[in-house]
């Protein structure tokens, strides 16, 4: 019981200490207003280009995409903030299981991503006057939680690079832009070249966006189980890889002496 | 050449070297134009060639330009504050405004590199047809756009000088400008209450000028009108920049908190 309590206590403390919750103005500007304006921008764009066709699906998909702020930039901070403050070597030298430690640190970002996405959807509904069927809400919550879990797994793999490279802003922005491009939130995957849409299948959020559009636009849940199982499996694989990546990155940081370099 | 002007030109060169050494700015200049252009092309793929040129080529190119301003000029003040050099620059014998303007022009030149990378990428990867352009007209329009965007960035940089939330603001202002200034769609589709905000922002008229001079259907009256509007709004912003500079200078000296991070 004590270990479970410690798991959640660490999740909460690390989030408070390493992220912008310490400064509410920063949090509102970066984690809420910035994603919301991104969602409104893309929703306005697709509304104009497609003449309002399937707007509900595009708004909901763009709302889901808002989790990128948490799953990429938030997850990056899980390692990078400690490094910036010079506490990373202490964390890594502690006897605690690193897999459990970093998974605990991921939990608030999964929840924060879901919160931002839900808020985005509420704003989208209010601003564009669209309606989301009540029966779609529960499947959407399930899809979004699994998709964000998966995206956070990939974000943690990226976070592991914080151990040895000072170019995290470059890498994190490439990943965030790739998710926006490959998810198909603003167009059908069929407009992409086949090699790009094949590549998209290995990225998180692609299946989440596909299901979100299908459920919101047509109430179609026929692919729900298959796509969500795949997405969950993808997320588990990402987290498993991230544990290995962190161990390897830690080794590299020790060898290169870059753990404290910010 | 006077000391201030020499410092201005030297700052442009130093700033261009410093900016491009930052990984984030490397992403903004070398990589983000490809993402913007590709995403916009996928959205607009089935539209007419004119619409694709106006909104995909010019729009995504301008997104790259604006992003470079946001992650450089708007945040340079904050960066100097973080390094602890802001106060030194502020009290140097060379006017602070020349240094800031030099930084902004240096960053805007990089922004134009990013914009033209996007043009080249779309032309050769997606085989887009570009209209025949009058060289003198397009060079004049580019010059007007550089000056206008630089003046606007100067006003923003001054406002950020006083803010302790400059980094958060920097992250926030990217998409609102994409949205309000109609980079990827006409501003008439925005809610009526939002359109006056579009009208008072120079980027709206800067991209409008580029759209007008590259549209073969534009009459000479429309082209002159587009130039006049951009020059007029830029002149107003020069006035705002002058007043804001005096106010920021005075407040910074009275409060003595310029370097407080």
Sequence-ordered SSE layout with sheet pairings:
The complex is a heterodimer of chains A (262) and B (261).
Chain A: H1 2-18, H2 24-49, H3 55-65, H4 68-85, H5 88-93, H6 98-128, H7 134-160, H8 168-182, H9 194-200, H10 206-218, H11 224-256
Helix pairs in contact in A: 1-6, 2-3, 2-6, 3-6, 3-10, 4-6, 4-7, 4-8, 6-7, 7-10, 7-11
Chain B: H1 3-20, H2 23-44, H3 49-70, H4 73-83, H5 86-91, H6 96-125, H7 135-162, H8 166-172, H9 174-180, H10 195-199, H11 202-214, H12 220-255
Helix pairs in contact in B: 1-6, 2-3, 2-6, 3-6, 3-11, 4-6, 4-7, 6-7, 7-11, 7-12, 11-12
Membrane topology (chain A): Multi-pass membrane protein
GO molecular function, one term (chain A): ABC-type transporter activity
Domain ABC transmembrane type-2 (chain A): 26-249
Structure write-up:
- By secondary structure, chain A is mainly α.
- Chain A has one domain (about 1-255).
- Helix content of chain A is about 80%, strand content about 0%.
- The longest helix of chain A has about 35 residues, at about 225-255.
- The mean pLDDT of chain A is about 90.
- In chain B, about 80% of the residues lie in helices and about 0% in strands.
- Chain B has helices spanning about 5-20, 25-45, 50-70, 75-85, 85-90, 95-125, 135-160, 165-170, 175-180, 195-200, 200-215, 220-255.
- Chain B starts with a helix and ends in a 6-residue tail after the last helix.
- Chain B: It is found in: Cell membrane; Membrane.
- Chain B: It comes from Ureibacillus manganicus DSM 26584.
- Chain B: This is Transport permease protein.
């Amino acid at each position: 019981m004590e270990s479970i309590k410690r798991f959640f206590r660490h999740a909460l403390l690390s989030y408070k200490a390493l992220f912008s919750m310490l400064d509410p103005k920063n949090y509102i500007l970066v984690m809420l207003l910035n994603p919301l304006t991104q969602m409104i921008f893309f929703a306005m764009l697709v509304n104009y280009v497609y003449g309002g066709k399937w707007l509900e699906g595009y708004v909901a998909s763009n709302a889901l995409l808002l989790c990128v702020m948490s799953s990429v930039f938030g997850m990056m901070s899980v390692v990078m903030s400690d490094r910036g403050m010079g506490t990373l070597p202490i964390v890594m030298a502690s006897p605690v299981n690193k897999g459990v430690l970093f998974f605990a640190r991921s939990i608030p970002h999964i929840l924060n991503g879901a919160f931002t996405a839900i808020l985005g959807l509420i704003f989208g509904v209010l601003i564009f006057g669209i309606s989301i069927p009540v029966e779609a809400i529960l499947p959407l919550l399930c899809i979004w939680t699994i998709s964000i879990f998966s995206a956070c797994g990939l974000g943690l793999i990226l976070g592991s690079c914080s151990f040895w490279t000072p170019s995290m802003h470059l890498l994190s922005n490439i990943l965030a832009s790739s998710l926006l491009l490959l998810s198909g939130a603003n167009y059908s995957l069929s407009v992409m070249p086949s090699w790009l849409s094949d590549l998209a299948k290995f990225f998180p959020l692609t299946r989440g966006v596909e299901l979100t559009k299908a459920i919101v636009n047509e109430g179609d849940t026929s692919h729900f189980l298959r796509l969500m199982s795949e997405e969950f499996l993808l997320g588990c694989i990402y987290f498993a890889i991230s544990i290995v990546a962190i161990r390897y990155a830690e080794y590299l940081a020790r060898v290169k002496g870059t753990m404290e370099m910010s | 050449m006077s000391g201030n002007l020499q410092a201005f030109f030297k700052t442009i060169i130093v700033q261009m070297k410093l900016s491009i050494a930052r990984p984030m700015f490397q992403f903004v200049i070398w990589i983000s134009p490809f993402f913007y252009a590709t995403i916009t092309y996928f959205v607009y793929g089935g539209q007419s060639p004119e619409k694709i040129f106006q909104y995909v080529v010019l729009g995504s190119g301008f997104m790259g330009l604006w992003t470079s301003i946001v992650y450089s000029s708007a945040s340079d003040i904050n960066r100097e504050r973080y390094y602890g050099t802001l106060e030194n620059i502020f009290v140097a014998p060379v006017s602070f405004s020349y240094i800031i303007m030099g930084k902004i022009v240096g960053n805007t030149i990089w922004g134009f590199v990013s914009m033209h990378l996007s043009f080249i990428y779309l032309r050769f990867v997606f085989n887009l047809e570009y209209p025949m352009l009058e060289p003198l007209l397009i060079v004049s329009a580019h010059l007007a756009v550089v000056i206008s965007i630089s003046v606007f960035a100067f006003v923003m940089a001054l406002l950020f000088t006083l803010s302790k939330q400059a980094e958060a603001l920097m992250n926030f202002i990217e998409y609102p400008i994409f949205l309000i200034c109609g980079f990827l769609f006409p501003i008439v589709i925005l809610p009526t209450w939002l359109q006056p905000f579009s009208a008072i922002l120079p980027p709206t008229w800067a991209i409008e000028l580029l759209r007008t001079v590259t549209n073969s259907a534009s009459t000479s009256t429309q082209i002159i009108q587009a130039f006049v509007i951009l020059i007029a709004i830029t002149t107003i912003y020069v006035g705002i920049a002058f007043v804001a500079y005096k106010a920021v200078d005075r407040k910074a000296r009275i409060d003595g908190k310029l370097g407080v991070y």
